[in-house]
Structures are given as structure tokens and as C-alpha cells.
Amino acid sequence: KQFGMKVLAWRNIETDNSALGESAKATEPRMEQIFIENTKNLPFKEFDTELYRIRKLAEIEAASHVDIMGNMYVCSLSSQTVTYKGQLTPEQVLGYYKDLQMPDFHSHMALVHSRFSTNTFPSWERAQPIRMMCHNGEINTLRGNKNWMYSRGSLMSSPLLSENYDQVILQSTSDNMSDSGNFDAVLELLSKASKRTLPECVMMMIPEAWQDNKHLSNTKRAFYQYNSCIMEPW
Questions:
Q1: Start-end of H helices in the chain
Q2: Residue 164 is inside which H or E element, if any?
Q3: Count of C-beta atoms within a 10 Å radius of residue 198
């Protein structure tokens, strides 16, 4: 309501945990789905930016309450994607979420990823996929990448976000997230808080070996060279 949006409904997500192990059941969260109306008739990318801002501020508000802090996680808040995930094996996903068993549930594309957690303890919120992508983690440059994001935090701004909120919203990385979680958060920041396309953001974060590639077009080389001055590769 603060940003002129209207909540249409809340919906309980129907699940079946009969196939889950004891550790997954012990931390199984309550799941709800919210429907928000695009009251301003914004193009989908601008609407997703508004939803991004709303989600980030909701997370910041939740973190200020001891009884909520650490117990709330938003899987996705987007006009384009819905994320179904959990502390599950690939075979358990379809049986767990009853939505995925409905014959009239259709999607143009489904992105699926399964990976055993290695350097972080398995949990529901750390499961793949994340909000923007699926990723194997094991980012060797993670500490440096996070430090660079911290150091430029006070200098970042976005013309798409309110000046009253941009400094808190633009803080993307955290020691509480996995490698993939930090990568996803920065990718989301670049794509939602700017007018860059998603492929452009991915190419900024994971550039190919372009310096000595003689087969690269001048346009693509210029793109990589320009963006290497803006962001270091992940």
C-alpha cells in the first residue's frame, strides 16, 4: 500500500511431506503465495523493479523483529517467475508441491537444478533454484567479490529506486548466504535496479576470456572492456 500496490489475495501452498526425511520435516516452513495487482499498469520490467523494492524493504523490516528474523524467506516475488524449491531430492519435488501435479499448471519454461550442499549446511532457503538462476556455487573469488560490493555500497544509486531507500536496498551481498545466494543477489540487483537486460548482467558478471580472443567481434570486445571498468568478474 505504501507504494501504491494492492494485495489481491494470500494463498496457502498445498504440500505433501509424507516422503520427507526427519531433518527436512523438522525445519519445514509454512508457505504462502501473495498476489499483487499492477495498479499503475507498469511494463513488466518496471513492475518487477517495484516488486523487488517491496521485497527488500519487507526483508529489512522482518530483520528488525526478533520473532521473525531468520524465519522469513521470499522464494520469488516477480511477475515473470515462480520458484518452487526446498530441502528435497529431485524426485521429491513433484510429489511435495501439489501445484506441480495440476494438469492446468503450465509454464513456457521450467528451470530445474539439483545440487548437494558442500560448503554450507543444507536448508530450505538455500536450496536451488534461487530467484534469478541456478548455480553450482564454489566461487573461488567470492570473498573478493563480496568485498568489492561492500566497498562500493555507499557510492551506488539507482534512478529506478527512491532516494529514500536506495542505500538499504542496494546492499546485496551477505555472509549469511551461500556462494550461489550472493551471486544471485548481485545478478538480481543489476537486472532489477537498472535498465540492463538479464543477458547483459550475466555477461558482466561472468565474462568469457575476451582479452586474447581473436575471433571476438569488435562490438563484443568493447562491451567486455567497458564493463570490466564497472565490475570485476565473479
A1: 22-26, 44-63, 90-96, 142-151, 166-169, 179-192, 198-205, 218-228
A2: none
A3: 15
C-alpha span between 204 and 231 (Å, rounded) = 7
Per-run averaged pLDDT (10 residues), the chain, 234 residues: 90 96 93 95 92 90 78 92 91 94 92 73 85 84 92 83 68 85 93 93 95 94 95 92
Cα Rg for the chain, rounded, in angstroms?
19
- pLDDT for 217 equals 95
Which DSSP string do the residues of 63-114 spell out, in sequence order?
HT-TTTTTS---S---SS------S--HHHHHHHBGGGG-TT---S------
- What predicted TM-score, i.e. pTM, was given to this entire model? 0.89
Q: Tell me the three cell numbers of residue 178.
A: 551461500
